[in-house]
Amino acid sequence: MFAVIKTGGKQYRVAAQDVITIQKLEAQPGETVTFGEVLMVTRDGSTDVGAPTIAGASVSGEVVKQTRGDKVIAFKKRRRQNSRRKRGHRQDFTVVRITDIALGA
């Protein structure tokens, strides 16, 4: 059984016990989070597709840790102008372990 959820403007295919890295959520490690935007669920050979979401369905997970991604360097140089700019960025992420896929009645 797996589901497709939407969070942080992206879609993720998840199943029970999957560990996913998503955009930062305001939750501490060990807390439970619930994703209400379930777009599709597949179980026992049948597929339920929402329009746009499946009513009553939810996916719950446990926050494993808050982390940051690799540094991305944005370097700009204008030739012959003695002008250059270097900026770095690290994105914040949340690592979540999916615990349950619930299909409301």
TrEMBL record:
Keyword Glycoprotein: no
InterPro entries according to UniProt: bL21-like, bL21-like_sf, Ribosomal_bL21
Alphabetized UniProt keyword annotations: Ribonucleoprotein, Ribosomal protein, RNA-binding, rRNA-binding
Keyword hit for rRNA-binding: yes
Protein origin, superkingdom: Bacteria
GO annotations of cellular component type: cytoplasm; ribonucleoprotein complex; ribosome
GO biological process entries: translation
Molecular-function annotations in GO: rRNA binding; structural constituent of ribosome
Function: This protein binds to 23S rRNA in the presence of protein L20.
Record note on quaternary structure: Part of the 50S ribosomal subunit. Contacts protein L20.
HAMAP family: Ribosomal_bL21 (MF_01363)
UniProt record similarity statement: Belongs to the bacterial ribosomal protein bL21 family.
Protein's name according to its UniProt entry: Large ribosomal subunit protein bL21
Species this protein is from: Salinarimonas soli
Gene that this polypeptide is encoded by: rplU
